[in-house]
Design goal:
about 425 residues, Rossmann fold, 3 domains, seven-stranded parallel sheet, 14 helices, about 20% strand, globular
């Protein structure tokens, strides 16, 4: 059956995924350790659904994740398997009522954040006695975010679990007792050279305590190359993004203090090329699908080596190589955990500001719940705005909104041509998401 699924999806497993599929296909608990970006989500979802039973009633698997974005990403990966099984995604900021309605017709698998899953269990939204498989994805991150109480409650309630699967990009010396790990197999690919990015780390020194000017100069030196700027604190993120906007530089913002919709929109615009800079906390260092990163800038020194590794794990994934820049003020020194680095070969001086990116994002006030899909949106822009393939970029469809990237140089003309048109016989608001 596995071979048939892989052939149908036209997918070839990597070595880590092959090992994980074999281990999870057995009966023991499994700890899967592999670097960010190596394909852990697919590695546990594939063998899970192969163990599902069409005759079974109720929820068969529960996946606990530390963030909303990771929950939604797992949902999309599961749907791409075309398994025929239903999945429901649960997380804070989403309508609990809608989730409860979906859970009333029990899905085979639920993926969600600890707090929201605990809420549904306390409110008997689904029958926990049918859950055979439990996955704790990025479990160490959930612990770091302070979800231990909710996770402990959820695990205590799952009385009939046959197998537990823990995944992480970091090895833990010991596991908390509440996880309830039995005899387990460890799949450890953290030391595999095949997953190490071709990454150069350069130390860039500022002549002053304030590194804002240095950061700006580095961004200007690599105009519109996809870049993540990492900070330790939200206030630093806000300070940097305010500085960039004051200079007319489009950038995205991502941290835990933002509303879910704003976080999703920042990621979406970064993926589709509307912004080439994403300023973020460590929240974006793991579990998110952010391809094609060329630069990671550590505006503030990560507290630990693990944090440094996970930040850098966002770059050199899809591309052959990438560069990390560690910014040091005149009062800071290179952290002791950083063993391999080069001093910046050039001085980052004042230069011309980056030009506007090539893309802008259009919004359409309709989505999956309105029976709108990507083909409907592409058809609108191709037929009514006379666009060619090169003028239309990434299209993303959510429950009630859709977004599409359009070449900036044609955006105003395109808006005039499509804003009064209908999709599937109905008119929806269309505009540019500034």
């Amino acid at each position: 059956m596995l071979a048939n699924v892989l052939e149908k999806l036209n997918i070839q497993l990597n070595a880590m995924q092959e090992a994980a599929v074999k281990a999870i296909g057995g009966k023991e608990d499994v700890v899967l350790l592999s670097p960010t970006g190596s394909g852990k989500t697919f590695a546990f979802l594939l063998p899970l659904f192969l163990k599902f039973s069409k005759e079974a009633k109720g929820v068969q698997a529960l996946v606990i994740v530390p963030s909303r974005e990771l929950a939604m990403q797992i949902e999309q990966v599961f749907k791409s398997l075309q398994s025929g099984y239903k999945i429901t995604c649960c997380y804070g900021g989403h309508s609990a009522k809608i989730e409860k309605n979906s859970l009333s017709d029990a899905p085979a698998i639920i993926v969600g954040t600890p707090g929201r899953l605990a809420y549904h269990i306390r409110n008997n939204s689904f029958d926990v006695t049918t859950v055979n498989y439990l996955v704790l994805d990025e479990f160490d991150k959930s612990l770091e975010f302070g979800f231990e109480e909710d996770m402990s409650f959820i695990i205590r309630e799952l009385l009939n679990t046959k197998q537990r699967i823990l995944t992480s990009a970091t090895a833990m010396k010991e596991f908390p007792e509440f996880l309830g790990l039995k005899a387990h197999e460890v799949i450890n690919f953290l030391a595999e050279d095949t997953h190490k990015p071709a990454l150069t780390t350069e130390v860039v020194r500022s002549k002053t305590k304030d590194k804002l000017d240095l950061l700006l100069n580095i961004l200007c030196a690599y105009p519109n190359e996809p870049t993540l700027v990492f900070c330790n604190h939200r206030d630093a993120v806000e300070r940097i993004t305010d500085m960039l906007y004051d200079r007319g530089i489009i950038n995205g913002v991502y941290h835990g203090g933002l509303e879910q919709q704003d976080r999703e929109k920042s990621l979406m615009k970064f993926r589709n090329g509307t912004s080439s800079i994403l300023v973020t906390t460590d929240l974006a260092s793991r579990g998110l699908d952010i391809p094609e990163i060329q630069h990671v800038i550590h505006y503030q020194i990560p507290h630990t080596e693990d944090a440094f590794i996970h930040r850098n794990g966002r770059t050199a994934r899809m591309k052959a190589e990438g560069k990390a820049h560690l910014l040091l003020s005149n009062e800071e020194t290179v952290p002791v955990y950083l063993k391999e680095f080069v001093e910046a070969e050039k001085e980052y001086a004042d230069g011309p500001l980056p030009p506007f990116t090539a893309w802008v994002t259009f919004f359409i006030a309709a989505g999956k719940k309105d029976k709108i899909n990507k083909m409907d949106i592409a058809g609108l822009f191709y037929k009514k705005a006379n666009l060619v393939k090169e003028d239309l970029g990434v299209i993303e469809v959510f429950d009630h909104m859709s977004y599409v990237a359009v070449k900036r140089k044609k955006s105003r003309e395109v808006l005039n041509l499509v804003k009064n048109e209908k999709i599937k016989g109905k008119k929806y608001k269309v505009g540019i998401d500034e």
